[in-house]
Amino acid sequence: MPSIGYEHLFTKHHTPQKLSSRPIEEGVLKELYDVVKLGPTSGNCQPARFVFLTSGYAHERLKPALSAGNVHKAMEAPVIAIIAHDPLFFEQLPRLNKTKDLREWFAGDVGLSEETAFRNGTLQGAYLILAARALGLAAMPMSGFDSTMVEEEFLKDTGWRANFLVALGYPHETSAQNSEPPQRAPRLTFEEACLCL
């Protein structure tokens, strides 16, 4: 993969309002995950789990769980990724991290393991958004959905917990051809958001 600068990942890339109907091949999703899994997590714990909804049937199963403002965007997306995490991620630690007794440390502290799974799973979800951009895809993260419904419909046999959704697709043709980038929503300044102590 060619070197990608921060301009492509951040300054020149905007969250799209519309995606192309062009399908995303399974090989692209596998490549996407192969990039995401390389991102750092604490102790290499890798708690994130991803469910890619690629069929119209899967989209329709998700629809009742979506907030009204997200239905249209999600239904038009070629792929909707459920960003989830495995509360029992520590069962994989003996092969992911050679630190002695690390599995037992997390298994013996439910609060610590839940916090670790959520924090690092969220981090890996952010990696997915950036990796998608690097691969030429567009990504629309969504938090407006009923997580209990999503878990019951898609995750009940896994025990995974839903965190957020990401609609994935190729940039819409009209947006890609537009020479004027859309106006970016305001951001907080360094002085507002940062402390140097």
In CATH terms, the superfamily is: NADH Oxidase
Globular, elongated, flat, extended or rod-shaped: what is the shape? globular
Q: Span from first to last CA? A: 39 Å
Mean pLDDT: 90
How many H/I helical runs?
10
CATH architectural group: 3-Layer(aba) Sandwich
- Specify the helix fraction band: 40-55%
Q: How many independent structural domains? A: 1
Strand order of the largest sheet: 1-2-4-3
Task: Count all strands and give the number.
Answer: 4
Give the CATH level 1 class. Answer: Alpha Beta
User: How would you spell out the order of helices and strands?
Assistant: HHEHHEHHHEHEHH
GO molecular function: 3-hydroxypropionate dehydrogenase (NADP+) activity
EC number: 1.1.1.298
Domain Nitroreductase: 13-170
InterPro entries: Nitroreductase, Nitroreductase-like, Nitroreductase_HadB/RutE
Please provide a brief summary of the model:
This protein is α+β, with helices and mostly antiparallel strands and 197 residues long. Helices cover 44% and strands 14% of the residues.
Task: Please specify the SSE layout and strand pairing.
Elements: H1 6-11, H2 26-36, E1 48-53, H3 56-62, H4 68-76, E2 79-85, H5 93-96, H6 102-107, H7 110-134, E3 138-142, H8 147-155, E4 161-169, H9 173-177, H10 190-193
Antiparallel strand pairs: 1-2, 2-4, 3-4
